[in-house]
Amino acid sequence: MTARQYKHRVVITGMGIVCPLSHDVQGLWEALMAGKSGANYNTIFDASTFPTTFDAEVKDYDVSARTSHPEFHAQGNRGSTFVVGAAAEACRQAGIDVETDHPTDGIDRTRMGIYLGAGEGSVDNDVFMAAIVKAWDNERHQMDWGKWAQVAFDGMSPVRELEQEPNMPAGHLAVLTGARGPTRSCLTACAASTQAVGEATMMIRRGDADVMLAGGAHSMIHPLGVMGFNRLTALSTRNDSPQTASRPFSAGRDGFVLGEGAAIVILESLESARKRGAPVLAEVIGYGSSADAFRVTDMHEEGRGGAQAIIAALRDAGISYQDVDYINTHGTSTSENDSVETKAIKAVFKDKAKSIPASSVKSMLGHLIGAAGAAELITCVLAIREAVVPPTANLHDPDPELDLDYVPNEPRKMEVNVALNESFGFGGQNNVVIIRKYRGD
Amino acid sequence: MDRRRVVITGLGAVTPLGLSAGRTWEGLREGRCGIGLIRAFDPVGFTCKIAGQVGQYDIRDYVPRSHRKATKLMSRDIELSVIAAAEALADGAVATRGTDPERINIDPERFAINLGAGLISCDLVELAPAVAAGARDGRFDIRKWGADGLSLVTPLWLLKYLPNMLACHIGIIHDIQGPSNTVTCAEASGHIAIAEAAAIIERGDSDIALCGGVEAKVNPVVMIRQCLVGRATSRGNDNPESACRPFDAAATGAAFGEAAAMVLIEGLDHAEGRGARIYAEILGSGQSTNLNPVYEHLEPDGAGVRIAIEKALADAGIGPDDLDLVIPHGTGIPQDDLAEARGIEAVLGASTSQVPVWPTKSMVSNTGAAAGAVDVVAAARVVTDGVIPAARNYERPIEGCRLNIVREPIETKVRHVLCCSYTYGGQTAAVVLRNTNP
Q1: Residues in chain A closer than 8 A to B286 (CB atoms)
Q2: What would the pLDDT profile of B110-140 be if each residue is shown by its tens digit?
Q3: How far does the CA of residue B177 sit from the closest CA of chain A (Å)?
Q4: What is the 3-state secondary structure (H, E, C) of B364-394?
Q5: Is residue A85 within 8 Å of residue A163, measured between CB atoms?
Q6: Beta bridge partners of B420
């Protein structure tokens, strides 16, 4: 097979992350190598009576330390403040100037864009709930909207309301970097930031931009988010042991651990990276997207959609399944995902399925929802750079039905030339990105 | 190598002007206004009490029997999207698993969907009993809510409110297995979704796609947000039909509303291969962003709008003189209208006084993520029908605006239409349609 012909090759020239394990990429890698867990009891709101009392939070993060204009970002939603820090780190590595009207990095700002998989901001919960309590007539089963509006008008802040919109993190990044190129935000549930990286790659390939800040930003650690996932019984309820709760592919897995954060990769045309002398960390060679078109509530039992996305990405990259050295799975630690994902991998990788290391860093990182795919792509780049594959932690009781090489518990030294990153989302969204070691060719 | 051409072969719309693209276009041609007093809830206490609302429908009339049960999982945004999708497919003579399983005429794996969607607001009346169970002495107590309230929320609650569920339901009904995305760039979403779907077909990842935008903004949570931010007009409550006045000197703010609008697009080769009727070609698109830390407004010089339009024209390979119509975002918020006008004028240059500009929100209202797609549907009808309708509620230009707003309907051959949009939060987008009739 040969790769499809595009105008431009796309490489990664910078990375940045703010996540439960660290506020930078180096810290993330050290935590993953040490098998650390980002999970602990919920300190964002009082979840002590919720079915799930723990999560994986970004702790002790202060956006003011990441920007010289905190006044532009400090009121942002959690996703927006996280993404400012992640982008600042990524831009520093890539040699991109931020917060200046006169950049000297050689990048035309109208050729620099943004593509995020980003989620909603948290509702102003105190006012939101108080307004409902005040206005609801339980006997007549109706709302007094006048009362509701009064509480809402008195209590809600215009800026905080606007910051709930999912396109706000992209707006913050534009202000931070001065980017004037194509700027997009998508929200395909847990597959969103892999989609963002994939489509941003396509935009550079097509010639719509030279540089794209691509990635994700999300926090669903708010009362309505945790409630929603708890009602779906998607979250682990292992309240006596938060740090071992995320156990992808194990027999005792009982749901995912809700995380939060932001992750950014700088995507750049190879010509632009060479011209600027930017560090080339890896090349993005393939992207595939598909939909299950099956059921609102369930993944396709055989992983049809997941397999289609992997095949599409391999075809786009012009490589065979035999060329893949490492699979970074979606691996959420839900019963359904880990089983279906294993079937999808077997369907595509056939004879080689059991011999390709396929790990889930969600075992340590938690599930960053919209930001998950980009955070995990960064771990793929690190696996290539360090020649070590991160493990699936907490895998002490393997599910007999799941028999791939999930790299249990210990990192593994091995050369990684091609890494494949899988992200699957509620509603049957499947996105896959493939990267390859850059050898200077 | 020439790039693959992409054409529009089906239209679907559910708007305050009607439950179909045809009815919506009739409304626009007649200059009707779909904005009225809010009926969805009692807007007492809201500074803005008007909105553009969709008429009565029964969602069960629009889904196959196999999907009836799933209608219980549909928020209003999902319902509107399902109706518009069904129309666009029927209009494009496409048969799917959901419409005519005996005569399916496209490959599900080569079929994409790309929708602009809003932040779907939860139904407060649905949620309220559970919240009330969390009240202690008239105050919300999150511990009590966790213990006594959560179990009262329907288990699949979250699935009604994830923005990607619009594309998910439509994909399940019609068996759309190809690339699927949901763009959440607020009021710029519709154009971005259409541009991205066109790029997916152009590069060969699909042959055909449903794309557009959907948002149901007429609910207390969204309306109060726009009231608080000060974008919604507070001065039109006594005269809703003249309240929204894009580019007019007497404008006082926006009127929001609900809609779904979709276009069926496909590779020209694919459309010709199946003998599809072609409305117009998607000739190019462009995108940029504002750089304004006051995130709810455009920069005064409209630079983000200008750059998006410049990129769209370059992508289309045409110049400003080739444009016969511009459909702007035009919200009726004076400072944003003026900034957008400056951005458009900067591109049109000497042609500013010549090129007709036709804002639609005075009739349709600002339908958020649907807005850009509504305008693309309208643009497709403009080029096929050869008529540019008149702007509504436009009497005197806002001071400093030099745009040539259409005062009377114009019957003419329209070669190219430019549609542009922007949003709070910053993103800007523009799409160019070309008339494919000889």
Answers
A1: 182
A2: 999 999 999 998 999 999 999 999 999 999 9
A3: 5
A4: HCECHHHHHHHHHHHHHHHHHHCEECCCCCC
A5: no
A6: B430
CATH class of the domain whose range is A10-122+164-436: alpha beta
Q: Do B289 and A186 touch (CB under 8 A)?
A: no
Q: Which domains does chain B have, with CATH numbers?
A: 6-121+161-434 (3.40.47.10)
Query: Which residues numbered 179-208 in A keep a CB inside 8 Å of some CB on B?
Result: 179-189, 195, 199, 202-203, 205-206, 208
Question: What's the distance, Cα to Cα, between the start and end of chain B in Å?
Answer: 24
Chain A residues touching residue B315 (CB < 8 angstroms): 208
Contact B185 A141 (CB under 8 A): no
HSE-up (13 A, CA, CB side) for residue B384: 18
Look at strands B135-136 and B139-140 and give their pairing: antiparallel
**Region A158-172: what's the mean pLDDT?**
95
CA nearest A292 in B: which residue?
B177
C-alpha distance from A432 to closest chain B C-alpha (Å): 11
Residue with tokens 């029908």: B385
Q: Which of A5, A8, A1, A10 is nearest to A311 (CA)?
A: A1
Per the CB < 8 Å rule, is B224 touching A153?
yes
Q: List the single residue in B with minimal CA-CA distance to A179.
A: B289
Per residue in A89-130, pLDDT tens? 999 999 999 999 999 999 999 999 999 999 999 989 999 999
CATH 3.40.47.10 maps onto chain A at 10-122+164-436
Please give the single-letter amino acid code of residue A205.
R
Contact A293/B122, CB-based, under 8 Å? Answer: no
User: Cα(A94)–Cα(A273) distance, rounded to whole angstroms?
Assistant: 9
**How far from A23 is each of A56, A62, A72, A87, A364, CA to CA, in Å?**
13, 10, 20, 11, 15
Chain centroid offset of residue B149 CA? 36
Helix or strand or coil: residue B265?
A: strand
Cβ <8 Å between A291 and B167: yes
What is residue B1's predicted lDDT score, i.e. its pLDDT? Answer: 55
How many whole angstroms separate alpha carbon A209 and alpha carbon B289? Answer: 13
Collapsing DSSP to helix, strand or coil, B250 comes out as: coil
pLDDT tens string A25-68: 999 999 999 999 999 999 999 999 999 999 999 999 999 999 99
Q: Residue B121: left (phi > 0), alpha (psi -120 to 50), or beta?
A: beta
Instruction: Tell which of B168, B234, B292 to mutate to test the A interface (max A CBs under 10 Å).
Output: B168
d(CA B96, CA B89): 8
Among the partner residues A182, A312, A428, nearest to B287 by beta-carbon distance? A182
Phi (first) and psi of residue A435, to 5 degrees: -120, 160
- Any B CB within 8 A of A296 CB: yes
Q: Provide the pLDDT for residue A3.
A: 57
Q: Which residues of A are catalytic?
A: 190, 330, 367
Report the pLDDT averaged over residues B373-385.
Answer: 98
List the single residue in B with minimal CA-CA distance to A153.
Answer: B228
